[in-house]
Amino acid sequence: MNSDYMREALALARQGVALASPNPMVGCVIVREGEVVGRGFHTWNGLKHAEILALDAAGERAKGAVAYVTLEPCSHTGRTGPCADALIAAGVAKVVAAVHDPNPSVRGAGFERLLNAGVEVEMADGFEGEAAKLNEPFFHFMRTGKPLVTMKCAVTLDGKIAAPEDNSGWITSERARAHVQELRHATDAMITGIGTVLADNPLLNDRSGLPRARPLLRVVLDSTLRLPLDSKLVESADGDVLVAATSAASAERRRSLESRGVDVCVFDGPGGRVDIRDVVSLLSERRYLSAMIEAGSKVNWAALESGVVDKVFLYYAPKILGGTESLPMAGGSGRMRRKDAIVLERTALYPIPPDEFAVEAYIRKDA
After folding, report:
1. Which of 8, 51, 72, 294 is catalytic?
2. 227-265 pLDDT per residue, tens
3. pLDDT per residue over 50-62, tens digit each?
4. Among 131, 5, 132, which residue's Cα sits nearest to residue 68?
């Protein structure tokens, strides 16, 4: 195996960010006698899988070649036929893959089909973790049937997200906020609370300027439909704004929002509030692979306490607000005992020069 070819395949796959969902990002490089004869990466709108695009580019030169692919070739028929069959038909001699496909209808079957046809199969040593991380939302969805939910917050060093009075300005730097847009671009849906909307009037849109296969879905938790009709979210709605309300909300208000292109869904949860677990279930049904929560203190805690949050991405600024009235990243009732704290694991630190940093960590579900 030549590691350079797998690195190129992974670089190709990354070009599918926000373009492949709800499918995984996949890159393929076909090599014959030390020369790259075909390249491809998958996009949802492009329909063809990475292997098919690479085979199309290679033509007759695919015979006897080695195909480097970032994910096990599929063995089932969906919108397209099985890639494993196409590789066999093209006469590829060997397939080098970075990771098994977690899809229960594929896992191992693609490799088995190749081997049964006399095609050599090799796992690319040292690339499994990188390939799985690249498609983390897809792998999570295939394991759990639910989108990967990330809670994102910008916080001071003492864990505050808002001051008690004036909150004009930003907690973090422009550089940190630019990275947030990268996260948004790679996300299928955003979730916030009506409190944040009323306070900040955000757009919650993808401002990266990069193309997407489908719009970023913007979700507002709003039990009684207080969302202003002149808010930026409503004024910009084009089938990409969903408001989660309860049956206590005004029917007239619902009709007004729906007439402006807002999708209103009713979820009656405990205490007359929307249960965020129902919202995440709806996202699952609509096959959104990932969701990011950007909300206030109360919604953050409700999401953490409900168990829907899978990971956090916290941006820390070199500032201290202090005081008992400044809002922490997660408010609500909290946990009453230190030993009952929500535990995080697999923590990674990312420096944001000159003085900021971000923390990525995963919620330990068995804690």
Report:
1. 51
2. 999 999 999 999 999 999 999 999 999 999 999 999 999
3. 999 999 999 999 9
4. 5
pLDDT of 367 = 53
For the entire predicted model, the pTM comes to 0.94
294 tagged catalytic: no
Inter-CA distances, 2 with 28, 64, 129, 196, Å: 14, 16, 18, 50
Measured between its terminal Cα atoms, the distance across the chain in Å is 41
Neighbours of 35 (CB within 10 A): 9
Across 47-65, b (16+ Cβ under 10 Å) vs e yields ebbbbbbbbebbeebbeeb
Number of residues written out for the chain:
367
